[in-house]
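pasting for ref. prot 1 ->
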Amino acid sequence: GGSVTITFQVTVDNPPNLTLLNPPRVENQGTVTADGGISVLTDDTEPTLPGAADKTRTLIDLYGTTTTVNSSGSPSDEGDPVTFTATVAPNNLPFAPPGGTIPTGTVQFLDGATPITCNEGSTSIQTLNVSGQAMCTTSALTSVASPHTINVNYVGDGNFDPSNGNTTHVINACTQNPVVINTNDSGAGSLREALATVCTAPNNNVTFNIPTGDPGFSGGVYTITLASELVVAKNVNITGPNSVTNTNPIVVSGNN
């Protein structure tokens, strides 16, 4: 008839993804079996009643994390591939968790609230590597009035809390494969405008389709006379002479 208390401790060496639980917790229940076949579930206040609903519940305080996001370069042109890199790091580690000091799991890349389809696996959800990093490359961002806000959400793992990070990225409007249609030094349809507005190579080209009635056409040659140096500020292909149906050569004159 005496009272017996049995104390035990369970150590969770490799917890599951506790961040999926609200709150993060572990639960356990053991069975004490005595001579004579008497079996009692632990933490059971009444041995004659089932103890299945009387588990030992331990709340877990996971390590905090910080998620940072960097882009491969802002601003960029429409159509250019941009790579966003997310890094998830622990805030502090008073001692090393059993699963290691680098957060594991996945992150999701979003343009604002819209998932980004990354070239890596054609999904917005990417797995952290052994350095706690994940990358997302896309060419689908378009030019908008405000910079894009790229959000990254880390889901957490058995040792580390979720966290969020973001960065901004500017997309410049550009012209896909502009065509030069006159010999003017500047303005609409000129070579200077095409160089200023063309999207970057190798997927874009500046070509020519200047009519024979253009003032710069003389002696079977088109002459573009410059008032100042042409600015070539990006990687660009310039393909001449003229169109397939008009193969007269084109001369760019520095005007002495």
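and prot 2 ->
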Amino acid sequence: IGNVNLYKTSGHFEKYGADSFQPISTPQEGEQFMLKPMNCPFHVMLYKSRPRSYKELPIRWAECGTVYRYEKSGELSGLTRVRGFTQDDAHIICSRDQVKEELKRVARFIKFIFSSFGFNDYKVYLSLRDPKNKEKYSGNDEGWQFTEAVLEEVAKEEKLDYVKEVGEAAFYGPKLDYKIKDILGREWQCSTLQFDFNLPARFDLQFTNDQGKDEQPYMLHRALFGSFERFIGLLIENYAGAFPLWLSPVQIKILTVGATHTDFAKKLQSEFLAEGIRTELDDLDETVGNKIRKASHEKI
């Protein structure tokens, strides 16, 4: 849970309050808390816990944080849309001249994650502010022009095949959203890289620069898997349960032909397990053909 004032300061409550679980008050003191819909303000408060120097930047903080968002019952869908989920959430706080390299680092990291898990058919969307509806967003024109320009430069230099989406930016800054298709061809957002100059201003984040003066940092929000639940759901669909060897929950299944083989099979299993290979033993009194059918059905 988090104090509701954190989310009012960040602007999340104003923008997403209706889609969050409503605040509850403490019995005596009347403080209001809510199930946290996002982790950002907590990392901000960590940063503000003491004075910061340019020598510490960039600061990169990551956590596997569980968040809660109210989804209507008709919108819930398996693992891909749930009310409580865990994100591999990170926030990078850096100076203006560090921004581009930090954005590139994350873009390369996301590409590595996707290729490692065999996701090759995904789309990247560059989400920008709607210039005709500026009241939906925080911050000034100068900040938006700078962040949008830098993020697009990074997308081009990293050779991302991206599509621009005007009006889809977060209220605090532009972002790159990575979307994977499910078995029905529907797109689901997983990874995201968001460029934020608004939260540092709203929370008055500062660091002492090399001239001894206060300077406001920039903040990057990033999730590689996004929601672990959603990523796992899409992963199961992507492989139809037949995972590659390194990812398979059970990597090897040893089948005995007869009862006299059990002792040797157990010895073999222990050798595989000692090497870190996930191994199961089927020494039931059944026909070999039936054991093979079961193991094949389990896609081992």
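The radius of gyration is 24 Å.
The first strand starts at residue 2 and ends at 3.
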